Amino acid sequence: EIKESYPDITIAGVQGSFDEPEEVRKIIETTMMNTTGINGILLISGGQAGVEKAFCHLKLDKRPYVVLYDLIPESKEALLNHTADFLIDQDGYLQGYRPPYLLANLLLKNISPEEEYLFTDINIKTKYNL
After folding, report:
1. pLDDT at 118
2. Threshold 0.85, pTM exceeds
3. Bridge partner residues of 124 (DSSP)
4. Side-by-side strand order, sheet with 122-125
5. CA 70 to chain centre
């Protein structure tokens, strides 16, 4: 049983879904049937459609809060159809492209970055500011 003890967060488990909606559905259903007190789900992989399928199958009176990662069509759809509450939108291109580019320049051309830090943007999206 998960005990609510704000501001502490208890993690019920970390699972790999391989971006498969059916695997996401199974993980959510199994975890929610075997663990009491779940009030939030963080999905940082693909397979967003599995969240809605799990909720439909479980027939919950009140679903947990759902936070998704990355501004992709499946996540937008989950926000708009009320399956998810929040979406963390990171600048995936900048975060995925710039570090290896800077490292390659340093190693191959001996060119150091101009700035010590490279700040990237993170936005929190809801259905209201999508």
Report:
1. 82
2. no
3. 88
4. 40-43, 65-69, 86-90, 122-125
5. 7
